[in-house]
Write a structure and sequence with these properties.
Distance between the termini: 54 Å
Strand content: 5-15%
Low-confidence stretches: none
Number of helices: 13
Number of strands: 9
Structural class: alpha/beta
Order of helices and strands: EHEHEHEHEHEEHEHEHHHHHH
Strand order of the largest sheet: 3-2-1-4-5-6
Shape: elongated
Mean pLDDT: 97
Helix content: 40-55%
Radius of gyration: 19 Å
Length: about 270
């Protein structure tokens, strides 16, 4: 059984890493705030004091980090420690350019796979995420299957690219639902009537996510993801969506709340 190192125990990372407990894989975990790793240690995982320590003896290294800056800092630490034969599975949402930059830094015999996920914390906790995997997935597909359904997207970087597309669609739809509810308010349409109409229409999925409870997609990360998309192509609508989420994230009470809270902010400020 491969030795696995899981780096990054935020909302998504913690739910995902939990799927590896009890699988028979020796699991080492690391998080910038070490206290978040304590429940995993209590259930048999080993706590690493640093990313380098976590990666040193691992066969599979999984990173699930907040943004390109956090990933770059961790990469600085782990790249010298990755041994020939090791596989690095990068599951953060960082875009394909970052993946290509990481690949250029790796030593001989180290394999990099980009495998960001589709789904929120509820699906992560249930092991039902969609795994968008680019590169030579076969050697670690059985590991990724613990997190959900693996879709092979093509060459290295293709998973990261598809994730930007998926998130742009989700965040664009959620922002549109928020604006549509602002229109309902202006027209005096009953809240329940408006939400039911949206749920039964073509924006049904976006409406469900806009009003979801018990899940978490950090609003500040929505800003990051939308920004990555608008830097990849000229997207005037998504630029407007980005501005919506930026204004919402400027509120300290919303910045690290779920995007459903941003919907309320967008609705009130439209």
């Amino acid at each position: 059984m491969e030795k696995i190192a899981f780096l990054g125990l935020g909302h998504m990372g913690a739910a995902m890493a939990r799927q590896l407990l009890g699988t028979g894989h020796p699991l080492t975990v690391w998080n910038r705030t070490a206290a978040k790793a304590e429940p995993f240690v209590a259930e048999g995982a080993t706590l690493a004091a640093s990313p380098a320590e976590a990666a040193r003896d691992a066969d599979v290294v999984i990173t699930m980090l907040a943004d390109p800056a956090a990933l770059d800092a961790v990469a600085d630490a782990i790249v010298p420690e990755l041994r020939p034969g090791a596989t690095w599975v990068e599951m953060s949402t960082v875009g394909p350019d970052v993946i290509k930059e990481l690949a250029a830094r790796l030593g001989e015999g180290v394999t990099l796979i980009d495998a960001p996920v589709a789904g929120s914390t509820d699906k992560a906790a249930a092991g039902r995420l969609g795994i968008l995997a680019g590169g030579d997935v076969a050697p670690v597909e059985h590991v990724l299957a613990h997190f959900g359904t693996v879709t092979r997207t093509g060459p290295l970087g293709s998973g990261a690219a598809l994730k930007l597309l998926v998130n742009a669609a989700v965040l664009g739809g959620v922002a549109l639902v928020a604006e549509t509810m602002a229109l309902a308010d202006a027209l005096g349409i009953d809240e329940g009537t408006a939400r039911t109409a949206l749920a039964n229409g073509p924006l049904g999925g976006a409406a469900a996510r806009a009003f979801a409870e018990g899940v978490h997609f950090d609003t500040s990360l929505a800003v990051k993801d939308t920004d990555l998309a608008t830097k990849a192509a000229r997207l005037p609508v998504m630029e407007a969506v980005l501005e919506h989420f930026r204004r919402a994230a400027a509120d300290p009470g919303i910045a690290h709340a779920d995007i459903a809270e941003a919907v309320t902010h967008i609705r009130r400020s439209s």
